[in-house]
Design a protein that fits this description.
Length: 393
């Protein structure tokens, strides 16, 4: 008899994975891929959603043929701040925009001013002002900049729930996606902010995160329960809330973003915390998670690629550089003397890179000092969410 298994698509900004778990949550099979981005109509990079879906369906179909296990459940963990829009027939409308797509900050000012100004808007929605990273502002931007698309939109789904829809044809909204720096949720009244209905945005009904639907019969030869998906940072929290059993802790979830999360936070999100890139997320049980963010993985890659090109390396720099305590201590001395290499710790693209290379230093030394500088920046963000007695995981 085949062992029963659970399939989870873990869709990150950089890496896409299909993980197969047994009933004890051990990974017994997996498949992964890195997909190249395409360009949207403005020439900005964005996810190739059609290619991703093709890979997901073919990979899932492959795993359904296993002679060792039988998949009985499926769920999705995806990066946030990304919306897919559907017309009345359930067809995708427009582009799956990248949350880093540059838009004019001035464009949104009319919206902020109507609802009390930027500071009030940020406080109510428990998120810094982030343009497209406030995913609710994406359909707002479409309404006034892509009117032909806006007129076709019947409903909008966050990324995990869109994948749920593609495997079930059932529409749902999940709180962990809505409550993730979207600008959509009023944390004071625990409901959508009034601007959402005022501007005519439409989302499917909110479902409990434990809600499941049946998979489309065309995608599987037997019944499979499909979850509605979860925001990836919040998903990383779930095992620890069970293991720790109420003890205070801060979880650091790394990837393209380093997200530092404190699920036991009981205070108030202040304007100063918002300025320091702190926000509130909503957990699966509806409770608030204090989080701080730093785009650690992306900034690391920007500077790592610069060094690779500068020193004409054939391999990635982290494949050729090893830990060297002597070099690290030397880097410490330079940093303590304010001799930093990175001059823009928020360089998300090569164009934003600012660097000052000391003379006659090896690539190993440069990389170790850069890693140290990035680590110190991340420590600052961890301190933003730390409270007394918290354990860092």
């Amino acid at each position: 008899m085949l062992k029963e298994a659970i399939a989870v698509f873990d869709i990150g900004k950089t890496n896409k994975k299909l993980l197969i778990y047994d009933q004890d949550f051990n990974v017994i099979d997996q498949k992964s891929i890195h997909l190249q981005e395409i360009e949207d109509e403005d020439g900005e990079p964005c996810e190739d959603l059609d290619l991703l879906l093709l890979w997901m369906v073919s990979s899932f179909s492959e795993k359904l043929q296993s002679s060792e296990y039988k998949i009985i459940a499926l769920n999705f963990s995806c990066y946030g701040a990304s919306l897919v829009h559907l017309d009345a027939q359930g067809n995708r409308v427009g582009t799956f925009y990248n949350y880093l797509k540059p838009t004019s900050a001035d464009f949104y000012q009319k919206l902020y001013d109507k609802y009390g100004g930027e500071e009030v808007f940020a406080a109510k929605t428990a998120s810094p002002i982030l343009q497209f990273l406030n995913s609710g502002l994406q359909p707002y931007w479409i309404k006034y900049n892509r009117s032909n698309q806006w007129e076709q939109i019947s409903t909008s789904l966050h990324f995990p729930q869109y994948l749920h829809y593609r495997f079930t044809k059932q529409l749902a909204t999940d709180l962990t996606s809505i409550g993730c720096h979207t600008g959509l949720w009023d944390f004071e009244k625990d409901d959508y902010h009034s601007w959402v209905s005022d501007e005519g945005l439409n989302f499917p009904p909110i479902q409990n995160n434990k809600h499941t639907c049946a998979i489309q019969k065309t995608l599987a030869p037997h019944d499979i329960k499909v979850g509605i998906g979860i925001h990836d940072s919040t998903s990383s929290m779930q095992p620890y809330t069970t293991i720790i059993k109420g003890a205070p802790f801060v979880l650091i979830s790394t990837g393209t973003w380093a997200i530092n999360m404190n699920p036991s936070f009981s205070g108030q999100l202040t304007s100063e915390m918002l300025k320091n890139d702190c926000l509130l997320n909503i957990n699966t049980d509806g409770k608030k998670i204090l989080s701080s963010r730093y785009m650690l993985g992306r900034v690391h890659d920007v500077y790592a690629q610069f060094l690779k090109k500068e020193f004409e390396l054939e391999k990635e720099i982290y494949d050729v550089v090893s830990y060297d305590e002597e070099l690290l201590l030397e880097a410490w001395d330079r940093i303590n003397a304010s001799q930093t290499i990175i001059k823009n710790l928020m360089a998300y693209t090569a164009e934003e890179l600012k660097i000052s290379l000391p003379e006659n230093k090896s690539v190993a030394f440069l990389y170790l000092q850069i890693m140290l500088e990035l680590t110190l920046k991340e420590i600052e963000q961890v301190k933003e969410v730390m409270e007394e007695d918290c354990v860092v995981l």
